[in-house]
Amino acid sequence: MEFQFAGLADFIAMNGHGPFVWVAYGVTLLTMAGLVTQPLLERRRLRAEFRREQRIRERRAARRQPERPAAEAALAE
Amino acid sequence: MAWQWFHRLGSPRWFYEKTSAWLPWLAAASALLLAVGMAWGLGFAPQDAKQGNSYRIIFIHVPAAFLALAGYYLMAISGAIGLIWKMKLSFVVMRAAAPIGAALTFVSLFTGAVWGKPTWGTYWVWDARITSMLILFFLYVGVIALSGAFAREQLADKACALLALVGTVNIPIIYKSVDWWFTLHQPATIKLTESSSIDPSMFYPLLTMIIGFYCFYAWVLILHTRTLVLKRESRTQWVQQLLGEGR
Q1: Which of A22, B81, B101, B151 is the least crowded, having the fewest Cβ atoms under 10 Å away?
Q2: Which of A1, A4, A21 is nearest residue B54 as measured by Cβ atoms?
Q3: Mutation for B interface: A11, A17, A49, most B CBs within 10 A
Q4: pLDDT of residue B147
């Protein structure tokens, strides 16, 4: 098994078929990369949303019982 | 007792925890196989006597089309299992499979069009194989659209499963189209029952790419399913804990 082309320029040109071959491979790789990144981005979005809701919940809880005596808080910890 | 594994299989949490360990292996295997297969197919496989170098598109076109079809089976069977046994995870897998299948069908149609120009002199013809693949693409898009069209997830699950099952009628048409209507698309190069019409020097890189695409498909399907599980189980304690921890 050996490399079928004389050099890099020859490899890229592919006897005139280069544009077709490279466009096909490029679009395929981009689509595959998109398939991998999409769920990861979605996951990150879910996590950010959860954290935001969590902060809101905590703030609400803090507002509901505003003056907690310091001694009691220390005891709770 | 004998059915315990079956019920566990339907549990989204069990799936999520089990697949965590598989992901790096599947990612590594698909990256390695695809890199080797592409280098082999692009640089080392011999030129085709009739088509010259444009035939090198086969190394992505055929695996993508294989997985587009296998993915449809998987989506329809998951939908059927969900309908019959009311298995939660099964519907999630079905819905995760839709965008992946659509993307792979797009890849096979696009690479086919780009391959068609230097080989047949045209990007597109309404050939039986190509048209039935286009219908497959629309079926996938239909499932994606349906899954977003209902306020209640359970209704969306059932509607998607039904559409997926009805659409299976298209699958044998795709397989047989090259034999029933012999138009422009060439018949299958790889056959399981007879000897293939492809030289070993081209067959081995193609086989590498096909196995690579299967690994990639498994990897991506698990990734999409896990994200959907997190989304749909977001009210449960284990997901809340997971999202809070930042793992």
Answers
A1: B151
A2: A21
A3: A17
A4: 92
In chain A, what residues touch B56 (CB-CB under 8 Å)? Answer: 14, 17, 21
Cβ neighbours of B220 (radius 10 Å):
25
A1·B57 Cβ contact <8 A: no
3-state secondary structure of B48: strand
DSSP state of B52: B
Residue B159: its H or E element: helix B153-167
Q: Tokens for B23?
A: 């992901």
- Residue keyed to tokens 């298995």: B87
Return the DSSP state at B43: I
Structure tokens at B153: 């997830």
* Alpha-carbon span B184 to A33, nearest angstrom: 31
- Token pair 């088509």 is at which residue? B51
Side chain identity at residue B172, one-letter code: P
CA-based nearest distance B4→chain A, Å: 30
pLDDT in tens, B79-119: 999 999 888 899 999 999 999 999 999 999 999 999 998 88
**Of the candidates B131, B134, B132, the residue with the CA atom closest to the CA atom of residue B171:** B132
Query: Are residues B216 and A32, on separate chains, in Cβ contact within 8 Å?
Result: yes
* Tens digit of each residue's pLDDT (9 = 90 or more) over A32-57: 999 999 999 999 999 999 989 889 98
Reference B210, options B58, B106, B100; nearest CA is B58
- Cα–Cα distance measured from residue B187 to residue B196, given in angstroms and rounded to the nearest whole number: 11
* Cα distance between residue B128 and residue B126, in whole Å: 6
Give bridge partners of residue B48 from the DSSP assignment. Answer: B52
C-alpha torsion A37→B36→B191→A29, nearest 10: 30
